[in-house]
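Exam prep: given the inputs below (a chain plus tryptophanyl-5'AMP), describe the expected output before reading on.
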Amino acid sequence: MEEQKKRMLSMVQPSGHLTLGNYLGAIRNWTTLQDEYDCVFALADLHAITVRQKPADLRRNTYEVLAQYMAAGLDPEKSVLFIQSHVAAHAQLAWVLNCYTMFGELSRMTQFKDKSRSHADNINAGLFDYPVLMAADILLYQPNYVPVGIDQLQHIEICRDIAQRFNSAYSETFTIPEPYLGKMGGKVMSLSEPTKKMSKSDPNPNGFILLMDKPEDIMRKFKRAVTDSDMRVVCREDKPGVSNLITIYAQATGKTIEEVEAEFEGKGYGEFKPAVGEAVVEMLRPIREETERLLGDKAYLEKVYRDGAQKAERIAQRTLDKVYRKVGFVKR
Ligand code: TYM
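Solution:
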């Protein structure tokens, strides 16, 4: 039975505190997939250093994100949870895949272009090579699906291209993965600039909600959220701010978009915005509390990531051995 389950893999960078976008676009969906799929979820700390990190912050955020994975409902008994830098095969496969990835295709990645603009003083080779490491993360585990938010689709596309190129040069080696998007929340937008995605690296803290934000901060940010002058609570392309709030509220309460529109018909934003804030506060409260509890139990978190690394390593090493053999490396 176990053997027949399809596999899923995904990761989050512990490059800061997680946002509501990371939760609704990614982690929350993962928790519902754990029984149906054979799941592997990791913390992409190798990716995080493509942008300068304070070492103490990176270490603390790595523990925090692991605790948040579990507080959100990822169960280390069901899913493999580990830290990317603990499994050497990620960096090793990334090197091999570099030699099957073209400069031109990496130059076209929109995230690289965006990050080159926002970190103009540190356009390092790792930032450029980031999608290849991500391809290695994925292909090592031979997953069928990669559940992500919309902003990562281009990276999955290049991963598929690299895998296909390698397979056609050396015979079937990698499973070609497909992206897996949740029904809603694939792109949670900034509260202050609703045409931009919500991001933990936004210099304006009113644009994002952090999973660890205090209830009063969450309420304040929603009350200040940018909307429009129309005053009607309806989801429409020319109302990006309101549409974003409706989607968030729908996800926090389990209602459909139509139900939310009906609930606030004839009511203005003065009533709607605090309602969204309250729903988000209640959705995040148990996660924040459980994260805090888990962070107080370092020994347990350490056991989880050590066990996870062992399981991950076994799967990853099998793929790496196969790749090394195919490209012609001599076995030690
Ligand atoms: P990262 O750390 O930027 O984001 C983690 C996940 O959260 C999703 N996400 C969002 N979804 C909806 N709305 C938003 N505003 C929003 N912001 C972030 C992302 O789409 C992602 O699913 N490169 C990846 C990490 C990575 C990875 C991997 C992912 C490394 N290796 C292998 C999948 C497979 C990243 O930077 O995600």
